[in-house]
Amino acid sequence: MSMSTVQSTLSTLKTCQGDINTAMDIVTEVALDLVEAQGRDDDQNKLQGMMMECAKLDSDMTCFMEAVQTVTAQVTQDPDVILSLKSSFQTEFEALKSRVSDLNSHTKVVAFKNSVKKILDQEKQSEGGDDEEQDEEITVTQSQPNYTCPLTQVEMVNPVKNRKCQHHYDESAVLAMIQRQQKNHKKFRCPVVGCGNQDVNPEDLLPDPILKRKIQAHKRQNSKT
């Protein structure tokens, strides 16, 4: 098998991995719709189970591709390695998988659980009827949400939240900027004015499905007016 064939296969797998991540976003959307409609808990549990299965598949594919890249790099340095290619790949693949300690830390699983919990908490607060909570809700409602990405200065499409400083950016914009800075051997600092976060990394970014739903609802409302 030629190296070009390997690279082509890896590219196809990367596309499949993108489809898996899209599926996880859809599962999250369905779960949030279900929670808002006060659906059954067992349905929510099934959706969470689907998220965990997708997370495992996504993780396994990442390990698989990293193992292939590592082994093929060894082949280019030492052609004799090709004689033990299968064994080398299996060893590397298993080693990478063993480092995945907890699928619950997968960014989309974390986003799924946090979003569901947030909506449930909001519903509990609204059912409480407490005057203080009502005043707080009015304040939140009156405040104008910011849907603009601090990098592009346009409305976000796929918002992600920084775990460290809690600021939001559009996913494609922030990842492109991080990659650009890394190529120049520089750190990427949070672009929000006054933020002291000097080093933003891809692993710091967490999808925000609830904000994404709000942005989509905002767009739909604007299209009607």
From TrEMBL:
Region (Disordered), start-end ranges: 122-143
Keywords assigned by UniProt, alphabetized: Metal-binding, Nucleus, Transferase, Ubl conjugation pathway, Zinc, Zinc-finger
GO terms for cellular component: nucleus; Smc5-Smc6 complex
UniProt record, GO biological process: double-strand break repair via homologous recombination; protein sumoylation
Localization of this protein: Nucleus
Principal cellular location given in the protein's record: nucleus
Domain SP-RING-type per the UniProt entry, residue ranges: 134-220
Name the record gives this protein: E3 SUMO-protein ligase NSE2
InterPro entries: Nse2(Mms21), Znf_MIZ, Znf_RING/FYVE/PHD
Bias (Acidic residues) ranges: 128-138
Family recorded in the similarity comment: Belongs to the NSE2 family.
Superkingdom classification of source: Eukaryota
Listed PANTHER family: E3 SUMO-PROTEIN LIGASE NSE2
